[in-house]
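Supplementary Methods. Inverse-folding protocol.

Structures were first reduced to a discrete structure-token string of length 320. This string, shown here, constituted the complete conditioning input.
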């Protein structure tokens, strides 16, 4: 039976009983940031505010952490966090290291698509990438330039890369036996965005295996004012995908998925743009120890008790 990307997302965002504790088992999934840089400046993403340094991960640190995480039992590794990983020149080698050297069963990646050329995609697929998702958040070129705040030519480049991805994927699968899932998601900024996206989604649907919607996240309450000024409707916390929304408290992110910044900080949040969610410094601490750090356990206990006042999560879910 084929597992869809939404099945995998729902399995991570549902906090199973064995993870509902201050010291849960190691997460099944971890996202690690090869680079914090991005060539887009999307208004819904607080990354463009540059609230933290944005550089590339040290390769030796990356390799050490991947070995530690696999030894701890992590099964799914995402080679991205808040940046655009196709800006990393050794992305293909990172995929191969995760698959061949560490033996991760599932290696996944999210991209804005503008740099995912057929040549780069071929290298990623041949290296063993299991899942590639395009963040396709713009109904047309006009909305793209308004939201992504970059040159409109990148919109057509993004569409062209998505359109060519399937042929490249299928060719590599025939040659190597490795078949990467291709997906796309879009954000429902407001009540009208789903209808506005219909034509754009129909255009790319033949080239991907599945398309799904996400709510507009508040990005730890860092960009809420700007979003509301546009008439958008952000949701508290990270409630997963549209169609399987979770309660914001307790937040699944601190129990079932790890997040590691380019400089080795283990974060409790999917949107740690300013460092307030750092739970451990993995340049000095092994991953397993960081996952069970006192700071992390105290935050999980607060979520389980539904008393997040005074924690880094307070402003994010205050209106939940």
């Amino acid at each position: 039976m084929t597992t869809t990307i939404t099945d995998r997302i729902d399995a991570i965002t549902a906090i199973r009983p064995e993870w509902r504790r201050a010291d849960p088992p190691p997460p099944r999934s971890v996202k690690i940031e090869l680079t914090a840089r991005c060539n887009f400046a999307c208004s819904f993403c607080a990354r463009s505010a540059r609230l933290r340094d944005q550089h590339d991960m040290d390769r030796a640190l990356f390799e050490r952490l991947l070995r530690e995480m696999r030894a701890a039992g992590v099964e799914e590794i995402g080679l991205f966090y808040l940046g655009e990983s196709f800006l990393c020149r050794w992305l293909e080698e990172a995929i191969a290291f995760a698959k061949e050297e560490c033996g991760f069963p599932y290696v996944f990646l999210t991209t804005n698509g503008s740099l995912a050329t057929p040549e780069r995609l071929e290298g990623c697929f041949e290296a063993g990438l299991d899942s590639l998702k395009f963040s396709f958040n713009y109904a047309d070129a006009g909305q793209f330039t308004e939201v992504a705040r970059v040159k409109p030519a990148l919109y057509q480049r993004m569409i062209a890369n998505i359109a060519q991805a399937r042929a490249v994927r299928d060719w590599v699968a025939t040659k190597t036996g490795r078949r990467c899932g291709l997906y796309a998601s879009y954000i429902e900024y407001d009540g009208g965005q789903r209808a506005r996206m219909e034509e754009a989604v129909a255009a790319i649907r033949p080239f991907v295996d599945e398309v799904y919607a996400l709510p507009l996240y508040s990005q730890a309450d860092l960009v809420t004012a700007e979003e509301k000024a546009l008439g958008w409707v952000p949701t508290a916390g990270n409630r997963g995908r549209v169609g399987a929304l979770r309660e914001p408290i307790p937040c699944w992110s601190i129990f079932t998925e790890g997040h590691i910044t380019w400089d080795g900080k283990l974060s409790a949040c999917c949107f740690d743009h300013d460092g307030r969610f750092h739970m451990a410094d993995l340049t000095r601490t092994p991953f397993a120890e960081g996952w069970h750090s006192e700071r992390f356990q105290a935050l999980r206990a607060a979520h389980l008790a539904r008393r997040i006042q005074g924690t880094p999560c307070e402003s994010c879910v205050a209106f939940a």
